[in-house]
Write a structure and sequence with these properties.
single chain, about 500 residues, alpha+beta, 3 domains, 3-stranded antiparallel β-sheet, globular
């Protein structure tokens, strides 16, 4: 027996090898020892490791954890002009995006972290600091041997390592968790979804056993009563050898001594195994807040015209729940309070939302024409070297280039600068409208909720209200008059009209 005593006070007495998540006086600890907490209605026992044997769970975890891990995690700084600038050479950026811990690259580190968070509902990372309190390494803790606990002295992380209970201050632990009921620890996802997982495993097992027997149904072998035991045993053995197994799917079986075989009446087709399997995959997708199409099951509910729009929806509905939490947790625990006024940590999602080459070229052309980007800035986006004279802002369709509206000179009329600001706002409005118009309900919510923000953006940029009120009025009319399938096209025409008008 070991008493856990420290600056947090006397926590409780426990055996050193005990799981901090389960006190010894809890009945759940015996469920853990004997595996009874894993029992389900199907008879399948579902542990965290066995859950990964279900293909749908394995794929969902692999997709989400891998996609989060692929996104670079940067330290950002707000410039004097209010622009977000990635600090790519800062030590924190290098720590988070190159090698958070010795002998481990960033991708594997964050993929493993997300795997634990998705399966266990919690992932814990110890922040090792130098003498100045700056983070130097990130060390993962075992989720089944770690828990956050609140005492009179505050929130502590209690973990078991090498047979000893170790307390760690909460501010030195990055805690990535799923949904919670106590505001401290995440819910064990595998436990919550064990019935759904068990049903999927049962379906997999049924299919395996079906093909193990050569795709044949079971049945009843009827042998007359007057047949001797020796003859019955020989008949039964011969029937099994000839009828069962993957090597005998098309063999003809001849029965003697008036024996009869009655095949089972229910087949995999009758039980709709394929349909049931797909429904179960969809159920798992719901648990992960993932579209079924990501798991190989058709889903006609949502469709997008481009890969970029598809990825944007995937980021908004699935990944952002994790990327936002990771970014905020790292900002809170790795950056001191005074520095958090201008510094923060978040993922760079630009690669995930990369357009097709054609769409990107069209977009950059519009941005250059609107003098929102210089040619060299546009070339930098597609990783091309600058060219002479490419730093001048201007419309390639005109004969005389204009000076950058962001840097007006004394010779530049004020109306030109205001014209550039108008174009900036109109093009931003058009980009948002085109994206939201892909879905009628999303477009309706956007129109109803973002009016004030749009007018504020126009006001801050000195843009006349008709440039905002005009498109919004036409958007409302299009929403009421257009069929859902035609809304996107109608909105695009409205946006193009105002974009052309503001470029005159």
């Amino acid at each position: 027996m070991e008493y856990v005593i420290g600056p947090w006070g006397v926590a409780e007495s426990r055996y050193s090898l005990e799981n901090p998540n389960l006190p010894l006086n809890s009945p759940a600890v015996w469920d853990e020892v004997f595996g009874t907490q894993w029992e389900t209605g199907t008879g399948e026992k579902v542990s965290h490791a066995r859950a990964m044997n279900y293909a749908a769970v394995h794929q969902a975890v692999q997709i989400i954890s891998g996609d989060v891990a692929k996104l670079p995690l940067y330290l950002y700084k707000q410039s004097e002009a209010g622009i977000r600038e990635a600090q790519e050479t800062d030590w924190l950026t290098l720590l988070l995006s190159e090698s958070p811990m010795p002998d481990t690259n960033a991708f594997c580190f964050w993929r493993d972290t997300m795997t634990q968070a998705l399966i266990w509902g919690n992932a814990f990372i110890y922040v090792q600091r130098d003498a100045m309190g700056e983070p130097v390494e990130l060390l993962p803790l075992l989720p089944d041997r770690t828990a956050m606990k609140r005492y009179d002295s505050g929130l502590w992380c209690i973990t078991e390592a090498d047979g000893k209970i170790e307390p760690i201050r909460a501010e030195d632990v990055l805690h990535i968790r799923g949904l919670t009921l106590d505001r401290i620890n995440g819910i064990d996802w595998t436990q919550g979804a064990r019935e759904a997982i068990a049903l999927g495993l049962a379906q997999q097992g049924f299919a395996s056993r079906f093909f193990k027997h050569g795709g044949r149904q079971g049945g009843i072998l009827e042998i007359p009563a007057n047949v001797s035991k020796l003859a019955r045993d020989a008949l039964e053995e011969g029937f099994r050898k000839s009828y069962e197994g993957t090597d005998n799917p098309f063999r003809t079986v001849i029965l003697r001594d008036n024996a009869k075989f009655h095949a089972a009446q229910t087949s995999p087709a009758d039980s709709q195994l394929v349909e049931a399997t797909e429904q179960q995959v969809k159920q798992i997708a719901r648990f992960f807040n993932l579209r079924p199409s990501k798991l190989g099951v058709s889903d006609s509910a949502t469709s997008y015209n481009s890969k970029t729009e598809d990825n944007q929806d995937y980021l908004d509905t699935t990944l952002s729940h994790w990327t936002t939490q990771i970014g905020q947790e790292c900002t809170l625990k790795l950056i001191s309070a005074p520095r958090r006024r201008r510094l923060w940590i978040e993922h760079d999602t630009s690669n995930l939302l990369r357009m097709s080459p054609t769409a990107q070229a069209e977009y950059l052309q519009k941005m250059v024409s609107a003098t929102l980007l210089s040619p060299n800035e546009a070339r930098r986006v597609i990783n091309m070297p600058p060219r002479d004279g490419g730093d001048v802002y201007g419309n390639p369709a005109t004969s005389s280039p204009a000076v950058a509206p962001q840097q007006p000179t004394q010779d530049m009329p004020q109306t030109d600068a205001k014209h550039a600001d108008t174009a900036r706002v109109v093009f931003a409005l058009g980009a948002a409208a085109r994206h939201k118009a892909k879905n009628q309900s999303s477009f309706r919510v956007w129109l109803a909720g973002d009016m004030a923000n749009l007018r504020l953006m126009a006001h801050e940029n000195g843009v006349d209200s008709p440039w905002i009120d005009g498109p919004l009025a036409e958007f409302r009319a299009a929403l009421d008059a257009s069929k859902p399938e035609n809304l996107s096209e109608t909105v695009a025409k409205i946006c193009l009209k105002y974009e052309k008008e503001c470029l005159k």
